[in-house]
Specification:
The chain has helices at 33-44, 125-139, 144-150, 153-156, 164-175, 179-187, 191-212; strands spanning 10-15, 25-30, 48-53, 72-83, 89-105, 111-118. It is α+β, with helices and mostly antiparallel strands. It has 2 domains: 10-118, Archaeosine Trna-guanine Transglycosylase, Chain: A, domain 4, CATH 2.30.130.40; 125-212. It has a 5-stranded mixed beta barrel with strand order 1-3-4-5-6. Helix 2 (125-139) packs parallel to helix 7 and helix 5 runs parallel beside helix 7 (191-212). The N and C termini lie far apart (74 Å). 31% of the residues are buried.
């Protein structure tokens, strides 16, 4: 049985620069008529929406139901909604699971997808212990330690309902900036690979922060003419 049970058809929301990872929260402003309809029907149902990243070159087909999307999607549940007077919506969508798009239904103004849940791969206890140790050591090292405290990342390890997969997804939702990189992260089911990836990213971020804080000599070197 999947860790997350989905209905047969899930509303599909293709976007050019948004990727939803499990446990992360994505704010959305819904204004197009077709997606207002999608939101209305999602709210009347089980509140699920799948976020799909549009492939490069989508522009000519954006207003159709045929723009190409990456097959791995982030399925979220509407956590909070604000219905505006003119029919638009502000939503907070909380990531529930990864999934792969198997087929589409286009008999409505918006797209719907038949999805297969991508469950995190199994990981050996000793391997997980090593990965957690590496990640926590990085988050305890300045200047990352300050960011980790302000972002409450260190508290994630104390939450029994959060798996290692959940922890690295939440951190990745913040530190992985480019949509195409985040899409690669979404597509990866292997927890070990994702953890090592985010550790490498954190090491790079830490190195960059340290370099940025190195005092510059004064006066600066000048060019002679």
């Amino acid at each position: 049985m999947s860790l997350c049970e989905l209905p047969e058809w899930v509303p599909l929301f293709p976007l050019p620069n948004a990727v939803l990872l499990p446990k992360a929260i994505l704010p959305l402003h819904v204004f197009e008529p077709r997606y207002r309809t999608m939101t209305e029907e999602a709210l009347a149902g089980n509140r699920h929406i799948a976020i799909a990243l549009l492939r490069p070159g989508f522009e000519k087909k954006y207003h159709t139901l045929d723009a190409d999307v990456f097959p791995e999607v982030g399925v979220g549940r509407i956590l909070k909604e604000e219905r505006l007077q003119d029919g638009r919506f502000n939503l907070l969508l909380m990531g529930a699971t990864r999934a792969r798009l198997v087929s589409e239904n286009k008999d409505r103004p918006y797209r719907r997808g038949q999805l297969r849940v991508i469950n995190p791969s199994q990981i050996q206890p000793e391997t997980e212990c090593k990965l957690r140790k590496r990640l926590r050591a990085l988050l305890a090292t300045e200047p990352l330690a300050t960011i980790a405290r302000e972002s409450n990342w260190t508290q994630l390890f104390a939450c029994s309902s959060f798996s290692l997969s959940d922890v690295v997804d939440l951190i990745a939702s913040v530190v992985v900036q480019k949509p195409e990189d985040k899409q690669c992260f979404l597509a990866e089911a292997c927890v070990e690979a994702r953890t090592n990836c985010i550790c490498d990213v954190l090491e790079s971020v830490c190195s960059g922060l340290i370099t940025a804080n190195v005092p510059r000599p004064w006066p600066p070197q000048t060019h002679q003419n």
